[in-house]
Amino acid sequence: xxxxxxxxxxxxxxxxxxxxxxxxxxAIAKKIAGDDLRVCLFANSPPVSLTKNxxxxxxxxxxxxxxxxxxxxxxxxxxxxxFLYACAEYFLNNGYRVVDVSAMNEPQYxxxxxxxxxxxxxxxxxxxxxEPQEALELLKVLxxxxxxxxxDKQGCKVSMFESGEIQGP
Length: 169
Known about the structure:
169 residues, alpha/beta
């Protein structure tokens, strides 16, 4: 399991030299696409310094039928929004056409690790579960942060989330 690097350091400062390989890939894409490149910034999980368990996935549970839990507390929504805003601002100021920011990816799934037979645990991918009301509350904080801001005026909007399944009435 490999986790992506984050720009948010443990002490709360930002380090935009992190994740140099991804930034290099983005620079190559910009070189190839030029002004046609549109960038969506998204997060599978909030930075681990903002999660409940200090991981980019939820903790394993003994009973897999246990209810799913979000790995971020509502108290950290504002800090998470500030982080995402700073990321959008950074890339916009560096010449990228950032069209949207998404704080959640497939929030309907548990995104928790599982126990192995030997008592250790494993996980496949970063992620954070959100109940519908939690997703709504986080989106409200994000919209409040972005709406009418400098990044909004440069065309960067808040994107809801990408869902892994369709649910209807």
